[in-house]
């Protein structure tokens, strides 16, 4: 399971590539409780981004903002489907802990230039929006750090900045810049 958000009125949904990797059918639950099958438009595994399309145009989309003014200490909101508990989305609030982070993933890939936040990003939140206090998307939630035998980790999450994600999402969707 994972999360996503509408970023264009034509039914375009942003999510993570790892959320849809290997999927034969992608079914989403819409905020009104209905479900729908989507079409995979494209993926960019190097940035862990993907675009889906739903055949509905009556749903509200989020505004893609600009993360260039973000500073360590700014308040952010992470939205998603934590632990696939169902029902309404889960929302956590935190601050920007660091900018420009690089992480190595379990599959051997590396993601760079990430936003680090202490807003909890749990399994199922991947692909959800990281929002500023105006409700504008400043990042795409992509990973939460987890504990291992040599370290205890709490509330360290990472998001692809919208300055990186936005152009990639538009390119994958075939939209002009």
How would you explain this protein's 3D organization?
This protein has 177 residues and is mostly beta strands. It has two helices and eleven strands, in the order ββαβββββββββα. The strands form two sheets. The protein has a six-stranded antiparallel β-barrel with strand order 6-7-8-11-10-9. A hairpin with a 5-residue loop joins strand 3 (26-29) and strand 4. The longest helix has 12 residues, at 162-173. It is globular. The two termini are 30 Å apart. The mean pLDDT is 89.
Please render the helix and strand layout as text.
Elements: E1 5-8, E2 12-15, H1 17-20, E3 26-29, E4 35-44, E5 49-53, E6 75-80, E7 90-104, E8 110-117, E9 129-131, E10 137-144, E11 157-161, H2 162-173
Antiparallel strand pairs: 1-2, 2-5, 3-4, 4-5, 6-7, 6-9, 7-8, 8-11, 9-10, 10-11
Count of helix runs: 2
CA radius of gyration is 15 Å
Tell me the series of helices and strands, N- to C-terminal: EEHEEEEEEEEEH
* Class by SSE composition: mainly beta
* Mean model confidence by pLDDT: 89
Shape: globular
Tell me the strand percentage band: 35-45%
Keywords:
177 residues, mainly beta, six-stranded antiparallel barrel, five-stranded antiparallel β-sheet, 41% strand, globular
Structure described in brief:
With 177 residues, the chain is mainly beta. It is built from 2 helices and 11 strands.
